[in-house]
Write a structure and sequence with these properties.
By secondary structure, the chain is mostly helical. The chain has two domains: 3-188, no CATH class; 189-240, no CATH class. It is 75% helix and 0% strand.
């Protein structure tokens, strides 16, 4: 059976869901490790175990959750936290457009379920990884379910460990959060334009932080660099 025919094939639903879950476990193990670090840092930021777990259950967006912790420590408002999450997760709009093409013809209610399961790892797995040839929503949801369960399990383990052993959440793990972001960005930066985005983001963030303070440097870098780079590249090479 062609992979595109499996989109609406009820008999394969549970099989595809199980296979997606099992195939994603190696990636999920890495997600679990990130989540343990998040839970520890959340504990060190003053969140209770329940609050840390509730954030992971409802937000399910590692980058914005990590970014929220230093803002929470400094007493950021709900509005500032919400704006930060929207800016950091703007890339999910592009993810959604691409995934929508992969599952073209699926009913809206199924696509809404798929949208909640789109994170960096499940998107990469479905587009350039082992799931790229399978146009099966149950298979994708199996990968998303694996990611969701292990992210929340790791959050619980990390937050509980942070409460029982406070030193774990206060020594050395601030750098772990930075290391996670360096690893995530470094693995995706390959072309000259990618480095231009990174460099311009750093310059904008430092300049805005120097003159405006607060959290405006996060918003400015996230919004201005992606808009400025295409204009710069177009100016340098009008034929592109």
């Amino acid at each position: 059976m062609d992979s595109t025919d499996r989109l609406h094939s009820p008999p394969s639903l549970w099989t595809d869901l199980r296979l997606g879950f099992l195939h994603f476990i190696p990636v999920g193990a890495v997600i679990f490790g990130y989540a343990v670090v998040f839970g520890l840092l959340a504990s060190g930021s003053g969140l209770s175990v329940a609050q840390a777990c509730l954030m992971s259950l409802t937000v399910f967006a590692g980058a914005s959750q990590f970014m929220a912790l230093p803002m929470i420590r400094k007493g950021a408002s709900i509005g500032a936290l919400t704006a930060m999450a929207l800016v950091v997760n703007l890339r999910h709009l592009l993810y959604g457009l691409n995934i929508g093409l992969k599952f073209k013809g699926a009913p809206l209610w199924k696509l809404m379920g798929v949208s909640f399961g789109i994170v960096d790892e499940t998107y990469a797995f479905a587009t350039v990884g082992p799931g790229r040839r399978l146009h099966s929503i149950p298979y994708f949801m199996g990968t998303a379910l694996c990611a969701y369960i292990l992210w929340n399990a790791g959050t619980l383990v990390g937050a509980a460990a942070g409460k029982w052993t406070p030193s774990l959440s206060s020594r050395g793990l601030d750098f772990a959060m930075v290391a996670v972001f360096i690893a995530m960005v470094g693995s995706s930066v390959k072309k000259a334009t990618d480095w231009l985005v990174v460099g311009l983001s750093v310059v904008i963030a430092l300049a805005v932080y120097r003159w405006a303070g607060g959290y405006w440097h996060l918003f400015a870098a996230g919004l201005l660099a992606p808009l400025a780079v295409p204009a710069i590249v177009k100016e340098a090479d009008p034929e592109r």
